[in-house]
Amino acid sequence: VRDVFVAGVGVHSFGKFLDKNLKELGRVAAKTALDDAGLSVKDVQAAYFGNAYGGLITGQESVRGQTVFLYAGISGIPVLNLENACASGSSAFREAWLGIAAGEYDVALALGAEKLYCNDTPRTMAAIATSSDTEVVSDTGWSFPVNYALNIRLYMEMYGATQADFARVVVKNTRNGALNPHAQFHKAMTLEEVLGAREVCYPLTLYMCSAIGDGAAAAVLCSREVAGKYARKPFVQVAGSALVSAAFMNEPVKPSIKLGAGYRASQQAYAQAGIGPEDLDVIEVHDAFSPAELQAYEEIGLCGEGEGIRLINDGITDISGRIPVNTSGGLASKGHPVGATGLAQIAEMVWQLRGEAGPRQVPGRNPNRGPVLALTHNGGGTIEGDAAAMCVHILKRI
Amino acid sequence: MRIPFKKGIMHLAESKADEDYLIGSRCRDCSAAAFPPRVVCHKCAGENVEEIPLSRRGELASFTVSWAAPEGFKPPVIMGFIDLPEGVRLLSLITGCEPDKDALPGGREMDLVFEGIRSDQEGNQVVAFMFRPAAAGGIS
Fold first, then answer.
1. How many angstroms away from the CA of A138 is the closest CA of chain B?
2. Residue A140 contacts B, CB cutoff 8 Å
3. A291-299 and A163-177 are packed helices; what angle lies between their axes, rounded to 10 degrees?
4. B64, A153: Cβ pair inside 8 Å?
C-alpha cells in the first residue's frame, strides 16, 4: 500500500447551534481542513461522510453525504456515506486512507458531522439508542448508561476501582477542555462537583456521561506526491489504521479487555505501524462515559488489566504526565456530536504532532524532539457486550 | 390472556403442568448457548443449532438503578446482568427489590418472572421477562 499523509484538518466547534443545520456544520469543517491543507474543493477526488443519526433527527435518511458535500461545493466525485455509530468519523477517515493507499486517489476528504440538539431531547435519545441491536434491547429497560454501569460495576468489583477514580477522569479531561476553544464546555470541574452531581445510574454521575452536541470535523488525506507539493510541514503520516467489529458475546466470565474490540483493533494498528504503546507521545480515547477511559488505557496496552486506576490517580495521563490522554478535553468537555467525534480526535492529534496545540501542547516523550507518535481510539455502539465498531489510528510526524 | 412483549424469546405456560421460561439456543457442535436464540452459532458459525428452554434460576452478576429512563419507562429502572447455568449472561429488569444501588449483592440467586407491563387494545396483558430475588429455601 502507498504511504498516506494528513494534509490538513479542521473542525466546526462543538456546542449547541440551533440555528445551524448539518450542511453548514459540515461545510465549515471541510472548508477549514482544505484551507489548512492549502487545497480547494476542486482538488478533492473522493469524499467520505461520517454521520450517525441525521436520518432519525432530520429525516434525511439517505444520501446525507451528497447533500452536505454539494452544499460545500464538492460534487460529481465519488461520495460514500459511513454509519458506524460513534465511530462513524474515524471510519470515514479510514476509508479515505484506503482509497489513497490503494492508489485510486491522491486527495480524499473525510468529514464527520452531527446535529443532535433539535429541541426534542427524547427524539435525540431514541436515535442514540439505535446504536445497539434494537431487536434485542428495545423495551427491555436497556440504555447506554445502564449498559456501561453494569460493566463498570464488574470492573469495580474485580479491581477495587471507586467512583472517585472515575471522577478524576472528568477532572483531568475538563481541565484540558477548559483550554480548548473548540470544546462545548470550558469549565474545569472539581472532584466534589463530579461526585456531588445527580446520579444517573450508579456509578455514573451526570458529569461522567458525555453530553450531546452539534459539531463537525474533517481531514484531508493525500498521497506522498501531493503532500510534497502542498501539505503543511511537518508532515503527518497515517502509520496504522484498524477497524474491527463486535466479536465477544455476553457470557458469565470475568471481563477481560482482551475479549474486546479495543484490544483487537489496537493490536492490529500497532503491528501495522511497527510500534508499541510505549512509543506513543499523545493519545485520544473514547470517553463517552468517563470510567471507560480507564478501560481504554488497558485496551490499548498503556498498562495491565486493572492498572488504569493507577494511571489516572498518579497523573500519568495529564498533559504534563508521561503519556497524556485526551488533551482535547475528551467527550467530557467537547460533548459528543457522534459522527464528528472520531475526526475531532484526529484533528487534535495532528495539531499536537505539528506543535500547534497552544496551551494544550504536550512536550512529547523526548522534549528535544517533540511528539512524534499519536493514537486515536474511537468505539461505536454496542452489541452483546462489545463495541459494535472500533477504529484505532496511529499518526506519525515525519 | 397473557401475550409476550416480544415474539420468539418467551414461552408462556399454557397449563398448570407447564411453566414460563425464556427460549435460548444451543449449538449441537460446540455447545455454546445464546439468548435470544440464534440460527447460526456465535462461537463456531455452525448451523447445527437448536432452541432450548433456559433455566429459570440464575445468579446476579451486576446490578444498577437508573434514574434516567428509556422511552416507555419511568425511573427508577432497576437492571442487572443475570448469569444462567447454560453459560448465558443476559441483561434483565429486576423486580422485587428496593431501587437502591446496594439492594442486592453480586452472586444473589434470582428467579425468572413474567410480569405485566401494559394492556393492549383487546385487553390482553402484555408480559415481559424480569428476575427477582429468589426466596430462601427454593424456587418460589
1. 9
2. yes
3. 90
4. yes
Spatial CA neighbour of A312 closest among A286, A293, A329: A293
Any idea how long chain A is? 398
Using alpha carbons, list the distances in angstroms from residue B41 to A343, B27, B37. 35, 6, 9
> In the Cβ-directed half-sphere of B71, how many Cα atoms lie within 13 Å?
14
Quickly tell me which residue has 453494569 as its cell: A150
pLDDT in tens, B35-46: 999 999 999 999
SS3 state of residue A25: helix
A205 interface with B at CB cutoff 8 Å = no
Candidates A232, A289, A297; CA nearest to A266 is A297
Which of B9, B30, B54, B66 should be substituted to probe chain A, the one whose Cβ sees the most A Cβ atoms within 10 Å? B66
**E strand residue ranges, A192-327:** 199-201, 204-205, 214-223, 236-245, 282-284
Closest CA to A332 of A217, A152, A211: A211
CA distances from B32 to A82, B56, B61, B88 (A): 33, 18, 19, 9
Cell numbers for A174, please give them: 475538563
Neighbour tally for A311: CB within 10 Å: 22
Of the CA atoms within 13 Å of residue A256, those in its CB half-sphere come to 7
Q: What's the pLDDT score for residue B140? A: 44
Active site residue A209: no
pLDDT 10s digits, A335-389 = 999 999 999 999 999 999 999 999 999 999 999 999 999 999 999 999 988 999 9
**What one-letter code names the amino acid at A86?**
C
* CA–CA distances in Å: residue A82 to residues A49, A65, A148, A349, A383: 6, 9, 25, 22, 18
Partners of B92 in the beta sheet? B80
Which whole-number Å values give the CA distances from B118 to A291, B9, B73, in the listed order?
A: 35, 18, 11
Does A147 sit within 8 Å of B91, measured CB to CB? Answer: yes
